[in-house]
Design a protein that fits this description.
Blueprint lengths: L3 E4 L5 H12 L3 E6 L3 H13 L4 E5 L5 H15 L4 E3 L16 H26 L5
Parallel strand pairs: 1-2, 1-4, 2-3
Helix pairs in contact: 1-2, 3-4
Length: 132
């Protein structure tokens, strides 16, 4: 069975390193990014140059329609999903709790909690035996 991995927030840092490592271990990799297409393309190019398969996938994990599109594009390009790494997340700039705005908190929770759960939900829908 072909192993297909989607990694959120994979255009740089830990996500990019995870994508490179997974590809070296036989995974076809979906490299998710939100805004930096060039960075995602660099990760994909490095994976392809090493003889593996990868595709850049745009999408904001905090936006449900983006998550649905990202998962559909990943499967269309690479085949059925077999693994997910929920890596996307933000901390934002260091700030004292008494200085945090509600907008900042909403953004952090939307990405770090809601986005993680939306991606987990979509992965379960594709990988669970309950869903075929």
């Amino acid at each position: 069975m072909k192993r297909v991995l989607l990694i959120t927030g994979a255009s740089r840092g830990i996500g990019a390193a995870t994508a490179r490592l997974a590809s070296s271990r036989g995974y076809a990799v979906g490299v998710n990014y939100r805004t930096n297409r060039a960075a995602a393309d660099e990760v994909v190019s490095a994976i392809v140059a090493a003889g593996s398969t990868a595709v850049a996938l745009p999408g904001d994990v905090a936006v449900e329609d983006d998550v649905l599109s990202m998962f559909a594009a990943c499967e269309a390009a690479l085949g059925p999903l077999t693994a997910l790494v929920n890596n996307a997340g933000v901390v934002d700039m260091k700030a004292r709790v008494d200085e945090m705005s509600a907008a900042r908190l909403h953004r952090m929770f939307a990405i770090n909690v809601v986005g993680t759960m939306l991606c987990a939900r979509e992965a379960v829908r594709r990988m669970s035996t309950r869903h075929g």
